[in-house]
Design brief:
four-stranded antiparallel β-sheet; 6 helices; 4 strands; elongated
Length: 192
Amino acid sequence: GAFALLLIQSSDRISALAIVTLALITFAVIRFLGYAEIIKAGRRSLLFGQIEKDAQGRAERIEALRETLLNSEDEDALWRHLQTVADTLSLEELGLEILVQDGTGLEKKAWVWTRSETEAGVHIQTRTTLELPVQSGRLHHGTLRLCWLQENSVFQPHHRALAMVLADAVAHAMFTLRGLDAPAQTNSATGA
């Protein structure tokens, strides 16, 4: 539009006025009829579409794993099921340390899984470590440790939230394995 205005001869004032009017009408149509929102939604879809799809896929796999963990028959089976999360969350290291009561008292039992090789060119500064308590109320069962590279996470806060869901699932499974009553389930939306 600006280029056309420069090429207009001095006798073509009506043409210049028509071009300016057309530009204003185009702006008004885009602004007031909601086309700006459609354009923003298109940009958002281009930018975040794949990220949302990956995050949704990881969340669905964690939910399926959660159900599997709750049906574990013992701590070793729980650990075997838990190791499948390493690929889901692209972890570098996964560790579970729990307290087990034997005949003489409490004993620590620990499992650690480490990725066999890290990609070339990865620096340790990008590594995130998160240690979460595995507990049901005040009853502490142990600790879940997850390490991942930031470039392998879909979205850092989402990754942390999935890790917390995982720690809660492990706590619930430990509660069930030890023959305790299941903790009360609450719905955060209703509080019931």
